[in-house]
Amino acid sequence: MRKYWKHLTSMIEPMMSTSTILVIGLFRHAADAWLLSPPCQPYTRQGLQKHSADARASSFVKILELIPQMQLPPKMLFIENVVGFEVSDTRKHMLGIFARTCFVTQEYILSPLQFGIPYSRPRYFCLAKKKPLCFMDASLNGQLLQRPCPFLKLEDSTLMDECLPEDAAEESLLSCQPLRNFLERSVSEIDYEDACDDKKVKERSDLGKFSVPHSLIDRWGKAMDIVYPDSKRCCCFKKLLSLYQGHWILACYF
């Protein structure tokens, strides 16, 4: 995306505004489908929640407002954002534009845990199709759902419990794959019998650079999300989330 943006802007006069660049790009390519992931900062629960009043939301709002002006608007849109977007005025504005331009929508708040992936990261998703295109289950149009039923086959009974009452939600973790299936290399597979193998010994010694001092664990252990190769979940993690309790993820092998 950055390479594309650099290539696009290199062909445009430096004094052009971002809005002008958007108009040129959208009208020139006439894409059938748009995948949009606008800045999440205006909608995060830890932020100021200024929504469309936040300057970082302006580019997405501008894109939405261009749709009614397009001779060849997209036929499908896929929008992703953080939990919190669903209560924003930006979302209300978005749905209003979709309604006026003959789009049908379905909205979801879903987490990888609901699809058997041991990673807790709930996100807002909006699917939009321009009529006469339609969804397979039109009864879900215009709804905000927090279950993945429409995306799962009926035989996936172990995952379908997310469609049941909340007391069954915990059982869905049983269907998740263990973290070890997603690790580049499982230390637990390096057993004592391999000690004579120089390559395996080097692999074990190389892990030292990832070790966390006990003093750090003693001080901040309660704020860490300590997981194991057999764990069926872990929290969302990124640089700034280390400021919040439960978002320092440590993988413990021993």
Automatic annotation (TrEMBL):
GO terms for biological process: methylation. InterPro entries: C5-MTase, C5_MeTfrase, SAM-dependent_MTases_sf. Keywords: Methyltransferase, S-adenosyl-L-methionine, Transferase. GO terms for cellular component: nucleus. The keyword Magnesium does not apply. GO terms for molecular function: methyltransferase activity. It comes from the Eukaryota. The keyword Methyltransferase applies. This is Uncharacterized protein. It comes from Vanilla planifolia (Vanilla). The lineage of its organism: Eukaryota, Viridiplantae, Streptophyta, Embryophyta, Tracheophyta.
